[in-house]
Amino acid sequence: MDSNKATVYFTNAEGNNVYLKLRVLDENDNSLGETGLLKPGEYVKDVELIRALSAGTGIRLKIMRYAPDTYLSEGSGVLNTTIGATP
Predict the structure, then answer these.
(1) Residue 45: other Cβ atoms inside 10 A
(2) Alpha helices (H) along 1-87
(3) Cut 0.85: pTM above it
(4) How far, CA to CA in Å, does 86 sit from each of 2, 3, 11, 31, 42?
(5) Which residue, 63, 60, 66, 62, is CA-closest to 80?
(6) How far apart are CA 52 and CA 22, in angstroms?
(7) I need a surface site. Which of 3, 5, 32, 83 has the fewest CB within 10 A?
(8) For the segment 55-70, what is each residue's pLDDT rounded down to a tens digit?
């Protein structure tokens, strides 16, 4: 975390045929921030959150897939993790 920005380095690999979006959720599934749609070959370093979070705070990272021609959902997955300490 740097203020209210979470460093994520979220990447949509060049060979993917879908758009991706990352949403950061708290442990109650309330949205804290999200990326825009990433085309294949794009990445974002940081996600701006609605508030700063301290090290050890539990979060959920929801990764969503979308069809590039229709923007229809092609599924999602969730990772449970915690905010790491700043080096």
Answers:
(1) 11
(2) none
(3) yes
(4) 8, 11, 21, 22, 25
(5) 60
(6) 18
(7) 3
(8) 999 999 999 999 999 9
